[in-house]
Amino acid sequence: MRKTVLCAGLLVSLVLAGCSMRHPRPPAAIAPGNAATTYSSDEFDKDLQAYRAALDAQPPQLEKALQLRDVMIGRIIAHVQVNYKRYEESLFYNRALFDTGSDILGITVTTAATISNGERVKSILAATATALTGSHLSISKNYFREKTIEILVTKMQAARESARARITRNMLLPVSQYPVEAALSDLVDFYYAGTLQGALLALSQEVGEKAEQARSEVKAADKERVDTYLKRTSAQEVNQTDRLQSAIREIEKANNLQEARRILTEIGFPPLLSDTPEKIWAALKAKHEEAEDNSDLLTKLLKALKITP
Question: CB 168: neighbour CB atoms within 10 A?
Fold first, then answer.
């Protein structure tokens, strides 16, 4: 048992030692803590006072205020950028360290439970292995929302670039349209876009937007299908009505009273033998007009006249 634990400790130490050098050493000019990449509160306050003094001057020194605004924005972005890269690196490293350590401990305890003597010891070790696995899953679910670091970092990078692009576009505006206060608001968004919480929220929003887009596409497809069907149906009905009217006109033109009687009889309105021709033609005309608002009667007339759809 002790040998197993010692072996596990040695293995963890080897893994940690192998991962100690996580990246090449950055140049001094952009190293964390360097004056070029660090913007202290005192420096910011000094620049802000100079910016406001330039605006309050008579006449206002707009060009100087513009330069100071852009300098403040650039230095804040550089400071945030350096800190973000360290944060991004720590996410990869700490998650890998946590996952690897959890796996090694889980394997060690499981192996120890297998080779140990005594049912009580085996039960304790098995319960410990279960607890380790459950703890790992719980942290992955509640802290990382079961997302891989690669997905979260990619989302953070995309959100940060979007926020930075907005700032860069706004920097083309004069200070009257994009004062430093508005820039600070955008810089806050730029900062929080590079956080784990920001990435999770962005992913959730993206999923919601895609779901809404999918629902909209389904609605549009359904509407298009219905509109197409209605157009086709309307065109078909117009065609049938025209053909029906033409057929009845031909019967009237030929004064084919026998055919008129047959049609009325077939649609369920047989004329009397004593009916005059005028009455028969009037009855057929009335049924023709009634069929415009009566689909069943229209179907019967079409069938009697042998007009196919």
Answer: 12
